[in-house]
Specification:
By secondary structure, this protein is α/β, with parallel strands linked by helices. It has two domains: about 1-185 and about 370-385, Rossmann fold; about 200-365, Rossmann fold (3-Layer(aba) Sandwich). Helices cover about 40% and strands about 20% of the residues. The chain has helices at about 20-30, 80-90, 105-120, 135, 140-160, 165-175, 225-235, 250-260, 275-285, 300-305, 320-325, 335-350, 350-365, 370-385; strands at about 1-5, 35-40, 45, 50, 60, 65-70, 95-100, 125, 160-165, 180-185, 210-215, 240-245, 265-270, 285-290, 310-315, 330. Strands 5-6-2-1-7-8-9-10 form an eight-stranded mixed β-sheet, with helices on both faces. Strands 13-12-11-14-15-16 form a six-stranded parallel β-sheet, sandwiched between helices. Strands 3-4 form a two-stranded antiparallel ribbon. A hairpin with a 2-residue loop joins strand 3 and strand 4 (about 50). The longest helix has 18 residues, at about 140-160. About 45% of the residues are buried.
Length: about 375
Amino acid sequence: MKIIHITPSYKPAFIYGGTISAIAQLCEALTKSNQDVEVITTTANGKEELSFQTAKAHTIGGVSITHFNRYTKDHTHFSPSLLWHMLNTTTKNQKELIIHIHSWWNLTSLFSCLIAKYKNIPVVLSPRGMLSPYTLGNRNKLFKALIHLLIGKTLVNYCKIHATSEKEHKDLLKLQNQTNITVIPNLVHFPSTVAKSVSAGNYARSKDQFNLLFLSRIEEKKGLELLFKALHKADFPWQLTIAGTGREGYLKKMKLLALELKIFDSIIWKGHINDCDKYQVIAENDLLVLFSYNENFANVIAESLIMGTPVAISREVGLAPFILKHDLGWVSELNAEAIAETLNQAFNDTEKRKKINRVAPALIRAHFSSKGIIEQYLSLYKHAL
């Protein structure tokens, strides 16, 4: 069996957030499991382009990758050379072939799926949160509605759908009645070395300051404005580190809001941090916060817990049921008052934070180990053939 992964962007284009890490971890784990894996992608890296030689295979993390130039630098990622490559090199020949498409609402994913359908090649589609009522009604909603009506529904019905959480599964069912959905969680990267600051003692220090961390792409759906308004109401000493990047206009808007709420001086705008530094930054903070309007999974939640750092999230985050079931943090409704109360509870409950710091790493390893999850993916691929 050969598995071709098609994604509009790939590692090291981490500017697009945790989805890039999730896709790369899957491809690398499949390769390590002796699967025949190939990745076809574009040079997309935000407004810039990755500097790889195009239309020629090379290796990243042990995986064979071929990059193609794109003509549009927005989220459409139009790449005629990639599509031409797909049209001319993919056939359902003597070797069983699976096309695994990641993301949606971009021309790379849509047209690749159309080509696969035309050639009668089975497709597994991981929409990565892109097929939900929230996403459909967010940016470019008229364009999305038209595309979904003209070809989207037909293409989605052709695919075997992979959802990363039960929440994403439910969101998919709200758009159209699908019986071909399989829920498999994302793989979680386990750092080879654990930061020295991670210990139960990390939560036994004085209450001079509550160190909060937001580690994600900075965009509207992440609920930063609600977090800022909640912190404006906070009656405990705090500092918020924001690690991530986003559109310049939106970043400026958030900084102006912080100034208006008189909380700007308590915020560290750290910008993008690489994977080498990410886990140390997580370990240095008391609580990771993510009060998103919509998240299909949120790898950063599991990455925080693998370091023993508790989390406070919204009910709209895909891992919220897991957090509640295992008592690994706090889950809030999506309004500033509820978030303020949630943060206050997290600040005051030092014993719970100590317990999470102690038990979370083993729980995450038990539930998101590579071996068990890869077996689920291989079962999905074989079922799609």
